[in-house]
């Protein structure tokens, strides 16, 4: 059983369900400051929903790969609300944009952990969405108003400054459409699919690899036949093209920004992504292993990464996500220059005499304390009475 088996979808002929008792779930871990895709036990409600897929249109049975005692004593009643297990960066930025100061006292339907709120304040400060006092900045308002995760929005704002907004918008659109589904992997044709994928590889960047795919897809008339011939997911790429139209419209019409094009200098695109994802950076510790700069988590490049398959081992990389399975893998990886990390990191990184990056752990801790202290000070000042009502109106559409 997978998460699809927990929906109300009815498929004719399902007679047997095998429930492992686990699910893959993206969970924000404050200890490492990033999302991690991890295996977690399901809840009893989810287990019952999985069992309900068998026997809908015919007699059926569910085999659970765990004991009844485990079901009763170890599984929780219902799944943890998403806001309590996910990054709340977008939520915090929305609240800041409508004037909410004391996040800890805000009346959430399901309050996220205090740790997550504090970590979000720091991450938003790092990408310049908040100032030193925890107030939203001009760029922060744009990021809050952009229909993508804050790091992606930060990337696009930086790309417009660098003059590679056209290319960055394409990559972000593919990522938002689910980059994992862009490359098809038909069962029994894995070697052919790998060979087709390698034609698009950029040896130093998965981001540029996705850009190569999208640009060639558009150049070939967004043809389903071309996508099928190259073992690409036409629907995912078509969805990315639709998302890109929305993103470009927001950047140019609403934000009055000029996108610009890198004209083949795709290093600029990697530099733009560094501005959004420098907190997700890692340094090579051996020929195959890396260590994240922010918190020292050992990790490896994902086996499907273009960077790994090119046989190079860049000293520093950024990545979109950390996946925790039998090993810790980083996905959607790009090689970056140390000076890029230093220039955008608000003093978080510097170099020592041996030319190795140094992470200023205390800077983040001090900044977190400063932002929280500033928030407490602002709380004592008169607050906008309608801030909570305004959020409710935004959520309910004014109903």
TrEMBL record:
Record-linked Pfam families: HA2_C (PF21010), OB_NTP_bind (PF07717), WHD_HA2 (PF04408)
SMART domains named in the record: HA2
Superkingdom of this protein's organism: Eukaryota
Organism: Neobodo designis (Flagellated protozoan)
GO MF, any single term: RNA binding
Lineage of producing organism: Eukaryota, Discoba, Euglenozoa, Kinetoplastea, Metakinetoplastina
PANTHER family with a match to the protein in the record: ATP-DEPENDENT RNA HELICASE (PTHR18934), PRE-MRNA-SPLICING FACTOR ATP-DEPENDENT RNA HELICASE PRP16 (PTHR18934:SF91)
Swiss-Prot/TrEMBL keywords: ATP-binding, Helicase, Hydrolase, Nucleotide-binding
Domain Helicase C-terminal residues, every copy: 1-99
The keyword Chloroplast belongs to this UniProt entry's keyword annotation: no
Family: Belongs to the DEAD box helicase family. DEAH subfamily. PRP16 sub-subfamily.
Gene3D superfamilies found in the cross-reference section: 1.20.120.1080, P-loop containing nucleotide triphosphate hydrolases
Protein name per the record: Helicase C-terminal domain-containing protein
ATP-binding recorded as keyword: yes
